[in-house]
Amino acid sequence: MSEKPHAGHDEHDHGHGHGSVFIQHHYDDAQHQFDAGKLGIWLFLAQEVLFFSALFVAYILYRHHHTEIYAYAHKYLDTKMGAINTAVLIFSSLTAAWAVRAAQLRQKKLLIACIATTLACACAFLVIKYFEYTHKIHEHLLFGERFDPCISSGGTPLANMNNSCPGSKSTIQWDFNARTTQTPRGAATEGCFPDVALDLEPQRPGVQLDCKVFEVSGATTVKDGKATFTEKSRKEIGPRCFDPVFGPGGGLSLAPGAEHKDVFPCWKPNHQPGVCRPGWYFRWTCEGDKCKAPAGGEGPFQTLSACNEQRGGKEGQLKADGTPWVSDCSHGKASAFVVEYGDHALRSSNDLRIAVDCKTPPTAAAPADPFAEVGQTPAVGKSQIATTPRPTHADEKAALYAGPPPENTSMFFTIYFAMTGLHGVHVLIGVFIFIWLLIRSVKGHFTPDYFGPIDFAALYWHIVDLIWIFLFPLMYLIH
Amino acid sequence: MANAHDAHEEHGISHVASTKVLLGTGGSLLLLTIITVAATKVDFGPNINLAIAMFIAVIKATLVVLFFMHLKYDKIFHSVIFLSALLAAALFVGFTLMDTGQYQNTNIWDLNNPPAAPIGPRPVSG
Questions:
Q1: What confidence category does residue A98 fall into, taking pLDDT thresholds of 50, 70 and 90?
Q2: Is A23's Cβ below 8 Å from some Cβ in B?
Q3: Tens digit of pLDDT for each residue in A383-406?
Q4: Which end of chain B is more exposed for a tag (fewer CB within 10 A), N or C?
Q5: Percentage, residues of chain A above pLDDT 90
Q6: In terms of Cα–Cα distance, which of A290, A276, A281 is closest to A332?
Q7: Which tens digits make up the pLDDT trace of A148-182?
Q8: What is the DSSP string of B75-94?
């Protein structure tokens, strides 16, 4: 530090004798011009700090309120790419600082090399950013309403809300370990209609469903004590996700014993969460020993078993005279509702074991309870959940990343693109500045008494590096 | 700092950074980048991890400002300008966060507290 500046001092004296042609006449001398420029660039840098601080405020405020979004969404970002870009920027900052030194010491070749290296690093940064951005565009990891990813942040395939993922324009075939009774739509089913329920654990992360609700009209016939329901027609009545009360007049109500847990969270078309509980819902009324559909479709929803219980019997029980109880349950028309999974119901194939078939036409949901057998639970049933060992922190994180994004995750990418985009624009401007400096340094414009442009551009470049030093841990290194 | 500044005032237009300082700063920055990436892989709890990452980022920023940006050897007025910008930014953040508890929660869907249940019977044997 003591020798080199003296060398510079000698060079300076040499250069001073000639005087740079770039010293403007309205300045007293080279020092005066340099100081004015330096004050200007520092005022500009102060403005840059305030400029970016607005975005940092947005980041801090949103992260403060929605820790879960940041914890989830940062997994979408490639830490390796971010780390490489950090190293590239730091190295370019070093060469930029060295360029100033080279200009001060009249080391023309070194100056050109330093500026060229800085320029190359700036371009490399932009190329890496280009790959990151195109990947995000491809995965629909964008801002606002354009955020509609096909994968979870842990890499699990998702069906997105706009049904735009490759291969997701499909219907769902149930394959709960091949225990589903695949009955063609409208076919007769033996026995009384059971209460239909898919006993899945609904609140698990990763289960995001989409439903269609149909009103089904058909006829029931009784033969040898067994009833069959034949579907005649159906019409879609509900939204894809239905609200707690649906049906004509909101007549369907919570059945006795039903719990909140029997619903699935799902996406409505307007991206609002809703609920979904696939199955068949029959309306019955109890009339003496018999159950029948209520007239006019009014009245509270009642299940057959509830109806039977009201009559004092249960399926499989023995009556007082020793004969088995047989439900006598269907007369005339029954009115039914079917709730089916919609077009892009699949949010997590692993959890639900749903097979997606993109080509075959939809197979109707069986009008019977696929899990009706006594003592059996579906593949992902509550009992299974209950016996599963308590998940570790890592397991919980893995489950979180495998699941669908939390609500408003698009905000992470809105902030991500705003911050990295504005930073990227600064890098792009830096590229043009360094091209200009490269040309001028090749022409030999810079001398120890005129190197202001190099110094000021380097200062600008350092502040760009400085912003990235904070952006990198804030975006890529969220724990 | 004052000595260094004074020592070079008369020699050149501005302070010339030594190669040792430049390489030392650049090397430290790269080393700190590796440390901050490695620190993320260890679970200290989200708040401590964030604090570590920010602490390292502040050290890196200080290194850049002092040595690469020559603020250590520069006129004190430039430091005043820069620090006042940081102060303004801190006030900006601080005042915005002051009433942050007053905001409405924008999460509509709460997994632990779902909306009222729809219709649907419990599963029973058929």
A1: very high
A2: no
A3: 333 333 455 667 777 777 877 777
A4: N
A5: 32
A6: A290
A7: 777 778 877 665 555 555 544 333 322 222 222 22
A8: -HHHHHHHHHHHHHHHHHHH
Confidence bin at B102 (pLDDT 50/70/90):
confident
Chain centroid offset of residue B37 CA: 14
| Coil, helix or strand at residue B108 | coil
One-letter amino acid at A14 equals: H
DSSP A9-71: HHHHHHHHHH--TTS-TTSSSHHHHHHHHHHHHHHHHHHHHHHHHHHHHHHHHHHHH-HHHHH
A271 φψ region: left (φ > 0), alpha (ψ -120 to 50), beta (else): left
Tell me, what's the pLDDT at A382? 33
d(CA A51, CA A54): 6
Give the whole-angstrom CA distance, residue A376 versus residue A153: 34
Tell me the CATH number for domain A4-147+409-476: 1.20.120.80
Which residues in A lie closer than 8 A to residue B109 (C-beta atoms)? 265, 272-273, 407
> What pLDDT sits at residue A218?
60
Q: Is A26 exposed, middle or buried (0-12, 13-18, 19+ CB in 10 A)?
A: exposed
Determine contact: A278 vs chain B, CB below 8 A.
Answer: no
Residue B14, pLDDT score: 85
Angle (CA) A152 A57 A407, round 5°: 25
Alpha-carbon distance of A66 to A85, in angstroms, equals: 27
Exposed, middle or buried by CB within 10 Å (0-12, 13-18, 19+), for B38?
exposed
Cα–Cα distance, B89 to A168 (Å, whole number) = 46
Residue in A closest to B15 by C-alpha: A5
Question: Which range among A230-239, A275-284, A355-364, B76-85 has the greatest average pLDDT?
Answer: B76-85
Q: How big is the A-B interface in CB pairs under 8 Å?
A: 276
Residues of A in contact with B77 (CB under 8 A): 39
End-to-end CA distance of chain B: 87
In this structure, what token pair is assigned to residue A396? 């919980």
Give the model confidence (pLDDT) of A145-155 as tens digits.
788 777 778 87
Taking CA–CA distances from A309, the nearest residue in chain B reads B124
The burial of A233, by beta-carbon neighbours within 10 Å (0-12 exposed, 13-18 middle, 19 or more buried), is given as: exposed
**Domains of chain A, residue spans:** 4-147+409-476, 171-402
